[in-house]
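Objective 1b of the project was to move from sequence-level analysis to a structural picture of ligand recognition. The entry below was assembled by the postdoctoral researcher (A.K.) and checked by the PI before modelling. It contains the amino acid sequence of the target and the SMILES of the bound compound, zinc ion.
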Amino acid sequence: MFDTFIAPLRCPVCNGDAPEAELQTYLRGVSADGSALRVGDQLDAADLTTESPLDAGYAVVREPEVGGPIRLLDVWICPSCQAEPWAMVEIADGQLRAVTAVVLDRPTLLSAHFISETNAAILADSVRGDLEGADEDVAESVVEDVVDVLRRRLPG
Ligand SMILES: [Zn+2]
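Corresponding predicted holo structure:
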């Protein structure tokens, strides 16, 4: 079971408006009950420890400060063009504060605390492929941390 963050987002690919864009999240773990979480909704503080995003399929970009806001990167599916653009989810004081469409460049990555591990891996594969052979001194293996790949390879 997963919950869904729902927010109005604009697709950066087709420029279409998605008034009810959805991002699946396993952030609430076993408490997930298919809830539609919207900006302003409260989240249980127990679900917002550093450990729980890791259990929920997110990789760490950098550790959030204790009691500070948590920003998560994940993809949504545009209902108009089926693209999978990125969005930033911000949670602060136990409340869903914002869901914002973003272009995932290096500054955006570094402003987040967590990123969807599956989608980060897909993106890491694509940016790694673009530059194949470009810097052979960087030994990369399939087990390499995908966040490190993105940190080095994303533009910006
Ligand atoms: Zn679109």
